[in-house]
Amino acid sequence: MSIFKHIAIVTLALSFVSCSIRDDRSDCSGDVFLHFIYNGDGDTDIFPSKIMCVNMYVYSTDNCTFHSEYAFDKQTLDASQGAHIMLPPGTYRIVCWGNAGERSAVDKSWGTGHIAEPAYFRSPVTYTGTDSLYCSILDLNVPETLQDVEGICNFAGSHIKMKVKLDGFADL
Q: DSSP per residue over 107-156, as a string?
């Protein structure tokens, strides 16, 4: 077989398996590496001792839509205090909730991924308690060049707002 046939076969094979060679990269994804950090009120990272799981929600800010979600348990976080995900070129908002468990429910619609005590989303509302929550919001861009992207998700303590109505008390 001639050298030209080898080159033609290799070129044809690469055009099917590599999105970086084609002009249309709409089905390509870039590597996104995220590091999770929580410093509390100090300068030392205390993430491993405070955050047992992370629920991550990815929103496309190009078209204001929910894109995807990921969950990381304690074992995964102990192995790698962060995440590696693949995203197509575009701009994104990454919302992470630490320790969202049975006493937390997330509304994943566009925005910041609102979270509340599960009773909030149903009626009648009976408050049962909350999880010890931590939140991180990160905006990032995956370039058309599909260059690797790194980001730091800095977690902060988060609190659920409550409204309390007391019945049966006389006006004083």
A: --STTT--EE-GGGGSSS--------EEEEEEEEEE-TT---EEEEEE-E
Least confident of 27-36, 72-81, 95-104, 163-172: 163-172
Nearest alpha-carbon partner for 151 in 65, 91, 76:
91
Q: What DSSP letter does each residue of 2-68 carry, written as one string?
A: -HHHHHHHHHHHHHHH-TTTSS--TT--EEEEEEEE--TTSSS--HHHH---EEEEEEETTTTEEEE
Q: Using the CB atoms, write b or e for 78-100: b if 16+ within 10 Å.
A: eeebbbebebbbbebbbbbbbbb
| Amino acid in the structure at residue 137 | I
| 135-162 as b/e: b if 16+ CB within 10 A | bbbeebebeeebeebebebbbeebeeee
User: Are 117 and 161 spatial neighbours (Cβ–Cβ below 8 Å)?
Assistant: no
How far is 20 from 91, CA to CA, in rounded Å?
19
pLDDT by residue (tens digit) across 49-108?
999 999 999 999 988 899 999 999 999 999 999 999 999 999 999 999 999 877 777 777
